[in-house]
Write a structure and sequence with these properties.
The protein is an all-alpha fold. It has one domain (3-73). The chain is built from two helices and no strands. It has helices spanning 3-36, 43-73.
């Protein structure tokens, strides 16, 4: 196994372990919040409990996805 293959495997495993759970939680959290409606009377509470964590989850997912794609597009020497 070459170093290129090892890095692809490592990045794929890290994406599955670190990138996918926040992305899925963000999607389910936002969709659940949209169907339930705001549960808090204060809009800032709603933002703190649903919007901010979802954006952080999407950011983690996006960075990990970008790293995965960049690694798999690299040509082997």
């Amino acid at each position: 196994m070459s170093a290129s293959n090892a890095s692809k495997i490592l990045v794929t495993v890290l994406f599955v372990l670190i990138g996918v759970p926040p992305g899925l939680c963000s999607v389910y959290g936002i969709s659940g919040a949209l169907f339930q409606g705001p549960i808090a009377s204060n809009p800032w509470e709603y933002v703190q409990w649903f919007v901010v964590p979802s954006l952080v989850g999407f950011a983690i997912f996006g960075v990990m996805l970008w790293w995965l794609v960049a690694t798999w597009r690299r040509r082997s020497p």
